[in-house]
Amino acid sequence: MDAQLIETLTQWRRHLHANPGVTHEEGPTAAFVAQRLRELGVEEIETGIGGHGVVATIRRGGGNRSVGLRADMDALPIQEASTTLPYRSTVPGVMHACGHDGHTTALLGAAALLLADNNWSGTVRLVFQPAEEGGGGARAMIEDGLFRRFPMDRIFGWHNWPGLDVGTVAVHEGPVMAAGRRFQIIIEGHAGHAALPHLTHDPIVAAGHAIVACQSIVSRNLDPLDSAVVSLTKIEGGEAWNQIAAGVAIRGSMRFLRDETGEMIREGLERIARGISETFQVKATAEVLSGVEVTANHPAERDLAAAAAGAVTTVRRDLPAAMTGEDFSEFLREVPGAFVWIGNGPSEGGRELHHPNYDFEDRVLPTASGFLAEAARRALSAE
Questions:
Q1: Is the pLDDT of residue 383 over 70?
Q2: Which pTM was predicted?
């Protein structure tokens, strides 16, 4: 990649960082993407796919194969910590704390590389996805006819990875990222005066026992060689200092790598709710909400991705899966594909994902763009 393109991509990435769009509010980002694609010379651009999604198509030669390359566009509802970064977020309470600004820019860079290369034949679909951060963006694009309107034989994507050397690509043999579900336990008690607890059914006491019990689901029910996480992240209840509350809501997140493990966690939550109800004379119900599935590469596409990465950078195939989730898994349920990590450098000092000090490493852009372009070429030429 020439120096001028690298400089242009860096400027685009920093513009996106300074002007983030939180989940479901990516309209300005989508408009920026569409304008940059037009400037690059892309003629087929469709917007408004599954919300603010953008799909661009590049065709070359007479090849009948097609391949998709995906980037996510949304930011997070997090206040950026830096007050000195020249391109810090200009939107209060919103920042690109997961590097989607870099993902989007890298896909624009891949478009530039493919447009400048005449040595491939077929159809490339550039998929700029909204609402990856728990907003169901991948499913919304699919339901809006993504694969029917823009057929593709395979699809590839990536995520930056703090703690992995800058530009190193990690390709997983098994699961890449975990399935994720949100859940809640709602406890309905009987409110009353704090000085007269015998006339109440206290949901806060019940909630305390539920919290402790939830922490035993993984530690005392799961095979130690399996992997799962149950995290309680939010608790709400009570209105006054001198009143025993009427109800409490406990909310959290569960992660797992096997469907059987997810079902075991669900059964554990429901069992706890039943026990809490009986023990404390309250009404406790557990509900597991929909979420993302396990992100697992298809074998042929996994090996193709590793070969493509090896043509541009260092490859590692020894990293374990992460318990974070990724709705690229929705695409992998529809067509074969692969999802890789590309190192973002050291994570010290709050440079980890979803941290207020996070920033995408611009040196990753040439590698990421090169990987995506090379994966497309190989997918279009593969037997």
A1: no
A2: 0.93
